## 1
Amino acid sequence: MDKFRQFLKASRASIVMVMLIPVALGALGAWVWDGVFNVWLFLLTLLGAGLAHLFSNMINDLWDYKNGADTGANEEVDAITSHSGYLTNGTWSVKVYTIVTWSLFGIAILSGVILSIFSGWWAFVLGLLGGLIAYFYVAPPLRLGYRGKGFSEIAILLSFGVLPVMGAYYVQTSHMDIRAFVLSLPIGLLTTLILFNHHFLHWKLDLQAGKKTLIVVWGEAKALRFSKVLLLLAVISLLVAVLVGSLPYYALIAWLVLIPLYQVYGKLKDQNPSRAYLPLMGGSVKATFRFGLLLIVIMIIQGLI
């Protein structure tokens, strides 16, 4: 059990819902719009997507450790790290960490292969694309998360919005639908907001390690304004989803769960100590989970009536 707890911490399994919620939304889209739902394909999609997410967390930490982005934590007092510390403190060797990380990817790929047999080759392609984005988010030569030109945010929007929603929908129906793409945008943008706000906690450490996030490039004040823009885009995209028929009109009630997050911004200045961003990060996670779960309930209600 101790090893299992270590694995849960190393993989940051506590936030795997940011991947499972989009998968559920995509599968529910197939049920609501097409009257199709295969529970076994759905469960296998959840498994593959969930393991792919854990892989992305661990490969991110592995490459951040190799690139030196995590090792400076002891030297930078005003930085809050979210990695397990198993590599920096020697709890796990790099070899063990690597084996566990790639084992997750292997099982996720196997899930994609099985799904492609039953649903079509796009199921594998979409899953593989998500895996490649996760890997090259921090790995050379692309290192999307280190470039500071918006590649990081686009990668997250694709990996935690567009690909899981459209992939889960495709697995159930074996075809694409523009409504699935539009449905992916609100939850995808909110998940992107989680990652963006997470960078506020350790942007000085990122600067020290040469990791050029948008916060490092722009500075706190401009990055905070962009954070608000991401929230606004999520709000607008929910309205668009209703207008194109991806969601029923009463889905707009989900706007209410975003209000507490919006209120957090009023407590922040243009420059803040790292700990001041903890409520923003926590509010982002809570808002995204509540928003996504509420949309799931709304789609179930829509399907039943």
Note: Residues 21 and 292 are 6 Å apart (CA to CA).
## 2
Amino acid sequence: MNRVTQLLGIQYPIVQGAMQEVATAELAAAVANGGGLGIIAAGGKTAEEVRAAIKKARTLTDKPFAVNLMLMDPNTPAIVQVVIDEKVPIVTTGAGTPKNYMADLKAAHVKVLPVVPNVKIAKKMEALGCDAVIAEGMEGGGHIGTLTSQVLWPQIADAVSIPLIAAGGIGDGRGMVSAMVAGAEGVQCGTLFSIAQESPVGDQWRQAVVEATDSSTVVIGSTIRDASRMLMNHKAEELSVLEAQPVSRETFNDAMSVGLRSAVHEDDATDGVIFSGAVAGLIKEAKPAAAVIQQLMTEAEDIINHQTIELS
């Protein structure tokens, strides 16, 4: 047990990424039942849709789970109230600062874990009273920052005293151990859980990730300050052309959101957006969420217990 497992009330220091359209009640509950922290993504949902998802998750697990707040979403104030009303113990946040909601969340004893891209923001989040930070390197899938994980994690570990959860490029036990060596006390995985058997994605999405190589992902949207990592396909090429026109962030994001919904709900692996981390090349099989967690833990423990590194 470490500070992350104690803080979150979970068995293993493994967090499921808050993937829009993918991080459903069913997936969050499966991760929770497997001993990790499952997350329901609230981005693009109404407050009542989030409430329904919370209630659904509670029929599937009695373990703690979280709700992710996409802070730029106009429904966020109402969703925060739902989180408080439903006594959700943990929120993760992205796309903005949780500053305006901290007083209400802390009064309701909700743990707040923001996703951060750099040291400056991590320090601000600690000063704000957040309970831990999730530091995500640019290797991750979906919306990304500009720093690599191996550069980002140790610098944030040195800069803050609250627990660090590492994200971006973790696909097996080696990645988990690497994060811990860098100063993290937990890890967040997105791509691994995106193809878990309890995920809502279809067979074409899963096949695209399993068949991916180290060079299968591409970053789109950098020139309009909205970089996202996804698998290269026809839709990614279309978005690249759209970005070059150039277009507004709103227009670009609308097109990307349509593509994401197509990929998740219609299993369109050609004209849909498949968010994926660069780590997809390591992933060779879709498993139940609990099996993903057990494999990560087994691999990491085996490395810690048995690997010998000779420096001279």
Note: The radius of gyration is 18 Å.
